[in-house]
Amino acid sequence: MSLRLLPFRQYDENDVINLFRLGDGLANAQIDTVGNGDNGVFVKIATGDFNLETVTYGADSYLGKTDYPFVAGDQYPSNPLSVIPATKNDRPLGLTLQQTAKADENGEKLLYNVTKKEEAQAVLPGQTVPVATKGIFTLSTNAFDNPNGLEGFYAVGTGIAIGATDGKVSGSALTGSSLTSYSSKNFSEHTVFGTVIGTGSRQGASNSTASTIADQFSGNYIVVKIDC
After folding, report:
1. Which of 81, 125, 176, 228 sits CB 3.0–4.6 Å from 27 for a disulfide?
2. Are 181 and 173 in contact (CB under 8 A)?
3. Distance (Å, rounded) from C-alpha 156 to C-alpha 194?
4. 226, 95 in Cβ contact below 8 A?
5. How far is it, in rounded angstroms, from Cα 145 to Cα 164?
6. pLDDT of 163
7. Whole-number mean pLDDT of the chain?
8. Is pLDDT of 208 > 60?
9. Order of strands, edge to edge, in the sheet holding 134-140?
10. At residue 205, what are phi and psi to the nearest 5 degrees?
11. pLDDT digits (tens, 9 = 90+) for 51-81
């Protein structure tokens, strides 16, 4: 499973928006690949026109072959309202709580395996992805720039803003009346939307031969309080 958002989190469901899908072409190919379809991606609104239909239908190769005789339908449903990864100088709407993916780790379409999709905490392309706007979250190294600079970029009390990589955050320090990141990228005050409240590093368990067993949660992480 592709993870930017680690298990420890605290948030209120009233601070979760369930209105938008991930933008076209951004879904991960599989649940074990890394990309803009991950959970924990900081996003902004791309389409917010509530005059659009509640659901739109159109041709989509994800359905597979649709022109064969007696196939039931060839139209794929999609939410017309969408979000895309936030970029530097954006104040994001929030972060995605689930991943958007087409297939499981074996390349089998999640479209045909709802149970596997739910177990992977995923939504299909075109489906609404929950976006948290406020709360406390644990971000893995896939979610922030300069993941090895915890003591510099992400010291406790440091603010966070969208960094150089779309959908990821970078740390910033308050200097006088302006906000400047430790990587010398300037941020305006309104783009800082959270604070680092803790950092850590996790390694896999050791077995009897004293070697380290890596797992999906290994590596540096930061705990942030956000209020988008």
Report:
1. 125
2. yes
3. 12
4. yes
5. 7
6. 86
7. 85
8. no
9. 5-10, 134-140, 219-227, 194-202, 159-162, 169-175, 178-180, 186-187
10. -70, 155
11. 999 999 888 888 877 766 665 567 889 999 9
- Spatial distance between the Cα atoms of 18 and 21, rounded to a whole number of angstroms: 9
Structural domain boundaries in the chain? 5-227
Mean local confidence (pLDDT), 92-114: 95
Q: Going along 49-168, which residue ranges are E strands?
A: 56-58, 76-78, 82-85, 94-96, 99-103, 122-123, 131-132, 134-140, 159-162
Distance CA 189, CA 61 (A): 43
CA 147 to CA 126: how far, in whole Å? 31
pTM, to two decimals: 0.87
Rg (CA), the chain: 19
Cβ proximity of 43 and 85 under 8 Å: yes
Q: What percent of the chain has pLDDT over 90?
A: 58
pLDDT over 60 (residue 10): yes
